[in-house]
Amino acid sequence: MNILVLRLxxxxxxxxxxxxxxxxxxxxxxxxxYVVTSAFPARLFINTPSNITVVALxxxxxxxxxxxxxxxxxxxxLPIDAVADMHNVLRSWCIDAYFRLHLKPVAMLDKNRSERxxxxxxxxRVAVPFTQRYFDVFARLGLKTEPHFTTLFNxxxxxxxxxxxxxxxxxxxxxxxFARYRSKTYxxxxxxxxxxxxxxRPRGCVFLFGARGQEEKTLKTWAAKTxxxxxxxGRLQLEEELALMAxxxxxxxxxxxxxxxxxLVGTRVISLxxxxxxxxxxxGYGQRREDALSAGLSCQPCSIAGSARxxxxxxxxxxxxxxxxxxxxxxxxxx
Length: 335
Prior knowledge:
By secondary structure, this protein is an alpha/beta fold. Helix content is 35%, strand content 16%. Helix 1 (11-27) links the parallel strand 1 and strand 2. The protein starts with a strand and ends with a helix.
């Protein structure tokens, strides 16, 4: 059987599909899996099982009002027997419809939006983790399996990227201080304090992760004031960042793509949560619930995926977690 797997974007969401896709592919070596995604997140599919084919869509194919027709034109040439829709958005619905018209079974991600809305008001409720929801999509196609993914680098640690010195006795801490939405981003001044104090520890060494451009500029100003702090934003390709993350002793991240990238290489993540919490279902694969730190305010969570504004207009969730709490937790449990 040939299964089409749809998860068109974004980086963190595609990262969360990798543990179920790899697990199912290894459990069913007699089947072939065609994973369709955008070109940039397609680069996450490292050391794939031999029965996975990644179909990377370039910008010309995946953007614009006619994109879905271009995607269907490309996919209809594949020998597809069933569809696992891991996205459940308008574009994927159109693709699903094409294959349904050709009598192919389709299983779609259950986002359970009503449950997620309840969580924002009833903070005792906890959503099913999204990674499990992806496993459930395969189960509805008769491909049930247990999670057994551990890391993208099953054959040992990858080589460090060029320009990164070999690791000695230092304790390497990665910090990814940014997120797409303000409500998910820890206060910058307080994060600088975390960076400074962790770098000042004996054997301390901090790597700062972020995007090219403004994030890169901000991180360079932090690093200029503190020894033992190195900015990798703007320096490394995605595959190189994954390799470096695999060597870290711990990663500190927001509820963002970097949490999921570090999870893919088996690195422990101390995640910081603001307007969202792990109850929304997005904790990194294989990560510990107790490693998810938040201020514990009565208004958390106020959003499922983050927002630019605070409903109460105070954004306390991004500031009320003291830097000392983060540092003490890391020193007592990891370093």
